[in-house]
Amino acid sequence: MTQAEIKLCSLLLQEHFGEIVEKIGTYLIRTGTQPLRMIVNDTGLLLDQVKKALCVLIQHNLVTYQLQKRGFVEYEAQCKRILRILRYPRYIYTAKTLYSDTGELIVEELLLNGKMTMSAVVRKVADRLTETMEDGKTMDYADVSGTFVRLADTHFVQRCPSAPEIPESPEAPPPPAPTLVVNEKDMYVVPRLNLVGKGKRRRSCDEEENGEHKAKKQKRDGESSEPPPDDGIYWQVNIDRFHQHFRDQGIVSAVANRMDQTSSEIVRTMLRMSEVTTSSGAPYTQPLSSNEIFRSLPAGYNIVKQVLDQYLTLLADDPLEFVGKSGDSGGGMYTVSILFSFTLSRFHPLMGFSPLLRFGSRCARIFRLLLRKKHLEQKQVEDFAMIPAKEAKDMLYKMLSENFVSLQEIPKTPDHAPSRTFYLYTVNVPSSARMLLHRCYKSVANLMERRQYETRENKRLLEKAQRVEAILASMQATGAEDAQLQEIEEMITAPERQQLETLKRNVNKIDASENQVDETIFVLESFIESTIRRP
């Protein structure tokens, strides 16, 4: 765990959950697995505060607990899961692209709350969609429920592990912490719910004043409320499934750039056919026959079987190995190389582009040369790259000091005398990937701190703008005249309005930069995972 990762985790926890949760989370990241008593003593927080903070972290899958043999419970922070908070906007946008506004809000609610029952998600999303509709229109629970079922069928949401039902016995005391188990068969099975109703709009203040007293209303609701039919069945976002979708999109885009649109559509069909049957970390998809692929092609693509076989043969013979042939039954069995294709198409261009941005085009030329030739002496680098000796030496040492390239000594004699030793420059690709990943984490942390600084420096102006907007909204609701509204708008002067526009533009740039760096982080993490899993 590097200092850059710890700092980024701390900033993410503080921004989304506050100072107390951030203090507990950062402490667990730095110290590792700890029991409750040690957390309270070392952080100096109250026991109640620590318990509530741990509940929040466990609810969002950011901390796990384990019952030890001695009978006490230890808590451990999940740093990788905390870093996934940075990718939440991308998950939500993907759900919107695939399942429209309803899917977007379902995923957003699950990410905001960590775990929720299906009935609670459906009601909340229906209410939010009804708020955005015109007067007289409402969102039906059945429509939201249908989208939720489709998300579960495609594995974008999944059931949370639950505590098994153990018969209570007066002799045996309950365990200090429940052991959560998950049934693989039921992980994506949606409970049969008869959710009948429509989304509700929020009542205005006048309606609440004219209604019943709040205490009586709560009492009445408490008496009539019953546990929902899916009580105890909680759902969460399947982050690995989203990552699998991102990799699939990258592979389809790479095939389209290398070949043509028809080839990319064939690969897209193969990935879509195996998206549920293939695990998120599998290097290859399940084998698919040519006949199955032909039947699953979109209706708009009028490709005859012979042409499809030619495309599949072309893809299998390509040096990049996007598609591999694994058998001859059913017209030929084909698989898509997921990790290899994605890392080859996205990671290697990234590796060649990084020295270009940091050192210039000539260093990038040397770096790409070393990637292709593996090992070269300094004289060979000068000749192949066609760069003068003095400049090549300076560039190699510059990249060596920044850990972009490494130097390997091969002695002719046991005494390692410099005159009888070969000095070969090479690129340690996994090490360079980890170095770039570390710098990406550092860049995101710097961007977050810059955004916080911009917001803090303009805090008074932002609060004033919010007050003016609230006054305008209330006056528009009461039917105020245009002259009155204009007078309220003039409370913010022209220089202040310009300052607000500049702040908004800067914050938008920072947010866009965070998302772009996160895309790079995803490519680097995928490559590092593929090197670890490679036999």
From TrEMBL:
The keyword Glycoprotein does not apply. Keywords: Coiled coil, DNA-directed RNA polymerase, Nucleus, Transcription. One of its GO terms (cellular component) is RNA polymerase III complex. It is found in: Nucleus. GO terms for biological process: DNA-templated transcription. Transmembrane segments: none annotated. It comes from the Eukaryota. The keyword Manganese does not apply. Residues 7-65 form the RNA polymerase III subunit RPC82-related helix-turn-helix domain. Residues 444-478 form a coiled coil. Residues 358-427 form the DNA-directed RNA polymerase III subunit RPC3 winged-helix domain. Residues 147-336 form the RNA polymerase III Rpc82 C -terminal domain. Residues 161-180, 199-232 are annotated as: Disordered. GO terms for molecular function: single-stranded DNA binding. DNA-dependent RNA polymerase catalyzes the transcription of DNA into RNA using the four ribonucleoside triphosphates as substrates. Specific core component of RNA polymerase III which synthesizes small RNAs, such as 5S rRNA and tRNAs. Component of the RNA polymerase III (Pol III) complex consisting of 17 subunits. Belongs to the eukaryotic RPC3/POLR3C RNA polymerase subunit family. This is DNA-directed RNA polymerase III subunit RPC3. It comes from Zapornia atra.
